[in-house]
Amino acid sequence: MEVIEEKSEGFLSQDDKDGGYYAIKGFLYQFDKTIIEILENPDKTVSFENVQDIDYKNTVIQVKHKEAQNYSPSKIRRPIKQLIKLFEQDKTKTYYLYCFFKDKSPQTSIISIDQLNEILGKDTEEFNRELLEKFIDSFALEFTEDYEETFRYTLDLIGKAYGIADRNLAIIQHSIIRSEIFRLVIKEKKHRALSKKELDNIIENHEQVIFYAVYKNSMDSHSYEQFMKKQFFTIKGLNLHNFERLFIIDASKYSSRTELAELTYKIRNKYYRKDKSPSPIICFRNIRDSVITELKKSMADKNEQFFDGTYFDDDKFRMRDFIERNQQVPVRFIKEDFLPELTDSFPLDKVYQFFSQNRLDFSSNASKDISVEIDDIKQAINIIS
Question: Around Cβ 64, how many Cβ atoms within 10 Å?
Fold first, then answer.
């Protein structure tokens, strides 16, 4: 096996990796709390990342997930101050702080004025006592379950709401809902809201699904791979549909050119049928151009046909030829830089994205857009096989 060195340029420190991991997990925890509020309040529209992390009608919620930290009053000072300032503006609502610390068991606390003063410390001077006394009558501090237990509870709620007994199907519904929250959270605040009725419609007509690695916590790697394969990479029925398919593959964790070739052949053999199903398009990203050039040379040496939109060294990328040769070659390669032009010029039916470092966020207008987080290229091979 030939191993290509210098797989990637630059590495994050372990502290940076850990910080990023906890930050992402905190967001996912918050989104699960959002899903819970939507499903437990089906007659209300729930906003997120708006007034606060979560709010609806007469309720405002801050969410904090600190799984690596023990609790101390000062660690909730900032979110409490934010809620007090919101209360000062609108005293008709009830305010909650949902938080998880590794040394606190789930419980709801109605705090006293003395406990509030201890939390605020010297910042107590920023507020008058009358305001603080009124605030504690409209506030509850909830120490909640950890991420994993909250995730399991969210799946239970989804199962009950949609009559799903199969845990894996509940995971799919969960990924669809979470994908929609991710889509909305980057929009203007007025769009960051969902109701149960809107969730029903999204689940029925979903176009995008994103599976993050945290789903693997509910199953081992082999089960995760088999689950992904069965749901999205198994050809159902006798005939392969005549679909234009794009595969975007994060190759930052490849171990050899042989792996890249194996994945290419797996995709080609599974999805190309001359005059019946067009050649799949593959975009390898987060990898040096020279590695992909060597892959193409190796394929050419074996008389393996492919097309990358060019005809000679330093040729320009020819989009029209690239599109029109979809039946003449069994596989096509495209650089990430040309993806916007491809999606603007050509209707894709399905987009599949395998990512590990980061997911490419772009508008494909495909009828189905499936993204799966992977540990490495070998895992993508197992899912496609």
Answer: 19
CA-to-CA separations, 319 to 332, 337, 363, in angstroms, rounded: 12, 12, 18
Distance of CA 377 to the CA centre of its chain: 19
Domain residue extents for the chain: 207-384
Tens digit of pLDDT for each residue in 329-373?
A: 999 999 999 999 999 888 899 999 999 878 888 777 788 889 999
Residue 15 sits at φ, ψ, to 5 deg, of: -65, -40
Provide the 10 A C-beta neighbour count for residue 379: 20
Structure tokens at 28: 């996912």
Nearest to 349 by CA among 249, 242, 205, 238: 242
Q: HEC string of the chain?
A: CCCCCCCCCCCCCHHHHHHHHHHHHHHHHHHHHHHHHHHHCCCCEEEECCCCCEEECCEEEEEEEECCCCCCHHHHHHHHHHHHHHHHHCCCCEEEEEEEECCCCCEEECCCHHHHHHHHHHHHHHCCHHHHHHHHCCEEEEECCCHHHHHHHHHHHHHHHHCCCCHHHHHHHHHHHHHHHHHHHCCCHHHCEEEHHHHHHHHHCCCEEEECHHHHHHCCHHHHHHHHHHHHCCCCCCCCCCCCEEEEEECCCCCCHHHHHHHHHHHHHHHCECCCECCCEEEEECCCHHHHHHHHHHHHHCCCCCECCCCCCCCCCCHHHHHHCCCCCCCEECCHHHHHHHHHHCCCCEEEEEECCCCCCCCCCCCEEEEEECCCHHHHHHHHC
> pTM, whole model, 2 decimals?
0.70
Angstrom distances, CA of residue 19 to CA of 12, 16, 264, 285, 358: 11, 5, 34, 25, 16
Q: In whole angstroms, how far apart are CA 158 and each of 101, 172, 174, 213? A: 26, 10, 7, 20
42: its two tokens: 């089906």
Q: Rounded to the nearest 10 degrees, what angle do helices 196-204 and 167-185 cross at? A: 110
What is the C-alpha separation between 87 and 91, in angstroms, rounded? Answer: 5
pLDDT tens digits for 230-274? 888 988 766 788 899 999 999 998 889 999 999 999 999 999 998
CB atoms within 10 A of CB 45: 14
